[in-house]
Amino acid sequence: MRTSFIETLCALANEDERIWLLTGDLGYSVLEPYARAFPNRYVNIGVAEQNMAGIAAGLASCGKIVFTYSIANFPTLRCLEQIRNDVCDHEGDVKIVAVGGGFTYGAQGYTHHGVEDLAIMRALPNMTVVAPGDPVETRLATRAIAGRPGPGYLRLGKANEPVVHKLVPPFTIGKAIQLRDGRDVTLISTGGMLQETMDVAKRLAPNGIEARVLSMHTVKPVDVEAIVKAARETGAVVTVEEHRLTGGLGTAVADVLAQALTRLPRFCKFGVPDEIYHAIGSQAYMKRLAGDLFETVQALLRQRLAA
Fold first, then answer.
1. What pTM was computed for the model?
2. Which domain holds residue 52?
C-alpha cells in the first residue's frame, strides 16, 4: 500500500505544485522518489510529530495541500492536540498518512499497534477518515483525499498486501464498493481485512450461504445508504476491522442501523477486543489472538436460525 501511495502522490505533485510532503524521520526506501523529484516540497521534520502537525497546519493556511507521513500511532496520537486545534479547528488542508495500521508492526509491541486510530480520528471535527482495502483502493483513495478540501486521515498497511480488485472500481469518498453480492449475510470490511473477508465469503458458499461483501474504505463519512440496503436485503451484518471493537467501523455501522431502522438485523462486530495484548509477534499471530472471522460469522447465522 505504501508504494501505491507514494507513486500516486508523486503523480499528484507533478500535477499540482501546492502539494507538500512532511515526514517524521520515517519512510526510508519509500519516500525517496518524492524527495528527489520535489526537494523544495519535501521536509523531514525529524522525530517531532507535534512540530510536524503544526508546520503542516501553517503551510495549509498558506494555501498548500500537505501530507504528513509516519508509522501507526506517531502521526495521530502523539500529536493529537495539534491535529485537533491547529488542523481541524481551522479546517486545514492537511492529510495525515499512517502506515502500519492494525498489527502491521505487531513484533514491535503495543507502542506500534495501530488499533485505536480510526475511533480517535473519527471523533475529530471536519476529519475525513479513509482506510483502503488493497493497493488499488490506495491509489484511488490517495487521489480522492488530495482533492477533498479539509483535514483527512489515510490509514495504510505496509507492503506486499494482496491486490483484491481485479478491475479498477469506481471510487468515491463516502461510498462503499460491493465486491460480492449475497442474500444471507453482509460482511462489511475496512482497511487491510478485505482479502480475509473475501476468503471467508468464499468459504461460506459451499455451505449454501451467500455473503455480500462491502469494502467500506471510508469510515467517515460512512455510506449510510449501502449499510441500510444491506441490512434490509440480507438481514445479518458483520463488520470486519483490524481495530478495537470500540469506536471504529463497527461502531459507525451500529449507529447507522440503530438510527435508520425500526427492525434491526442480526449484527456482530469482528475486531480487536478491548484489552491489551501483552504479547508480540507477526501480524498474522496478533490477528489470530483477536478471534476467527469464519467462526464468528457462522455463530451469528446460527443465532439467526435459532431465533
1. 0.96
2. 2-155
